[in-house]
Structures are given as structure tokens and as C-alpha cells.
């Protein structure tokens, strides 16, 4: 028996690519460029960038004294 509807093609099965829109209150050329650059990255490149930034933040926190275990202070009982 023949189907009364057309068989879907591969282009029908893949979801359409969403258009990304940057909404700003005021015009900011630097943010537009950064947005276009970030939207052009692949998922793997975004994760690599995120891990690099996380490592940089961790290094800066340790350098400024955060991330080290606190010392145990014994208090004298009266």
C-alpha cells in the first residue's frame, strides 16, 4: 500500500539553525564583535575557552590567597 503523504527528506529531519540576536540597550561595537566571534565557535572550542578561563580564575584566586586551607587555631578555654 502506498503512503498518501510524502516521505520526509533528511533536511526535514534536522532541526533548523536558530538565528542568534544580540539585544543591547545602547550600541556597543565591542560587544557586537565579541558576540559574533563567540557565536562562530564550535561547541568544543567554547568548552576549551571555558576551561582556559576557569584555570585563569583559579590561578588568580590562589595567587591572591584564596583556595588555601585555613589554619586551625586553638583557643584557650577560660
Written overview of the protein:
- The protein is mainly α.
- It has a domain at about 25-65.
- About 45% of the residues lie in helices and about 0% in strands.
- The chain is built from three helices and no strands.
- The protein has helices at about 10-15, 30-40, 45-65.
- The termini are far apart.
- About 0% of the residues are buried.
- The mean pLDDT is about 80.
Keywords:
single chain; mainly alpha; 0% strand
Q: What profile does the largest beta sheet have?
A: none
Please mark out the parts with pLDDT under 50 across 5 or more consecutive residues, or reply none. Answer: none
Mean pLDDT: 79
Computed over alpha carbons, the radius of gyration is 26 Å
Break the fold down into its secondary structure elements and pairings:
Blueprint: H1 10-13, H2 29-40, H3 43-63
Structure described in brief:
With 78 residues, this protein is mainly α. It has helices at 10-13, 29-40, 43-63.
